[in-house]
Structures are given as C-alpha cells and as structure tokens.
Amino acid sequence: MAKKGDLLFWLFGAYLILIGVLAFVNAFMHLDSAIPLWFSYIAVFLIGIGVITKNSDLIAIQANILFIPYIFWDIDFFYQLATGNTLWGITDYFFIIGWMNSLGNFITLEHIYIIPVALGFIYLLGMKRKDLWKFSFLEIAIIFLITFFFSSKDMNANCVFESCINFISLGSPYYQIFWFFSVFLMVFLANSLLVFLMKKANKLKKE
Question: Both ends of the chain: CA-CA distance in Å?
C-alpha cells in the first residue's frame, strides 16, 4: 500500500512539474506574446515539488494564491464555452487562439484541475499550519515587484499594470493599491477556508 501511495505522489508530482517546465519553456520561446512570470506557472511547478516531497505547506501556500482567482477564470471559461460569448474577458485569449492550436492553451487548462488536485493532496498529507497566508503573500509581493519592474506593460503579466477583468478600470497608482488589497483579501479568505475544511476533516495537525 505504501508503494502504491508513493507512486501516486510521484506520478502527479512529476506531471505537474512537467506542466510547469513546459509553461516556462513555452514562455521563453514566445517572449513576444508570453512571459515566464505568471503566478500560475510558478505555482503549478511548486505544487508538483510539494506533491513529490509530500510537503503540504508548500502545496497550501500555492493553493492560497490560486484558489479564488481560478474560480473567476473557470467561471469565465465555462460561460464562454457554453454560450460563445465573453463574460469578464479573462479567458478571451483562449478562444481566440483555439482549443488545441497552442501549447500555451494546453498548459493553461491546468486552471480547471489544479485546485482540486492540490486540495486532494493537502487532504492526504494533512495541514500543519494555520498562518500559511503570510508565506503566500510574501511570494506574491516578490513576484509582483519582479513583474512590475522587469516586464513589459503590454504583457500585463499577473495583471499588475491593469485589470484583466473588463469591468474594472483604474489608473496607476490606484490600481496597484487595489491589486494588493484584493489579492491579500483573496489569499486570506482562501487560507481561512482551507483551514476550516482541513479542521472539519480532522486533517489539521497540531503543532
């Protein structure tokens, strides 16, 4: 049983690491239209590392970052898939390029399954800390600063220059203040929900 369990961790972990590596490679190969600084690329790779090393904290830190933004992405995606019409404009790029006409689109499908996968492995491993939101926000702040100062505004990676949602329109520096406030709130709420779920499932380990 232990060997089968280990195989599960290795298979999922290796797959997620591969998706992360492909995302970075694809971004470097198409720097005119992509950039390797997106949170999703980094988080998927780190979740893969966390799965292989059985580090639930590392997985949870990334889940905190992705959880609520991915809900918005998934709603926008499935709405446009079902109706053929844009909703918030978040996933318009996916349908313009075409389902399987881009390696980037294949990679970005991880938005659909990465959160359930992450939650599943956190459940299997248990959660050790309640304050992982601090590390999530530190990671976000570092990536924000790198993205803001070392990437092009035209790329708008991680939506740091302007909103990726079509109904939010704020100029600098008000938008960046709003960005930090909303991201911090989303991370804190996601962490609180994760702690609640793990506690209800008796998977919150005592320190």
Answer: 27
3-state secondary structure of 176: helix
Total-model pTM: 0.91
Provide the 8-state DSSP code for 157. Answer: G
pLDDT tens by residue, 1-15: 456 678 999 999 999
The string of DSSP codes covering 50-105 is HHHHT-HHHHHHHHHHHHHHHHHHHHHHHHHHHHSS-SSSSSHHHHHH-TTS-HHH
Greatest extent of the chain over all pairs of C-alpha atoms, in Å = 56
pLDDT digits (tens, 9 = 90+) for 183-195: 999 999 999 999 9
CB 37 within 8 A of CB 147: yes
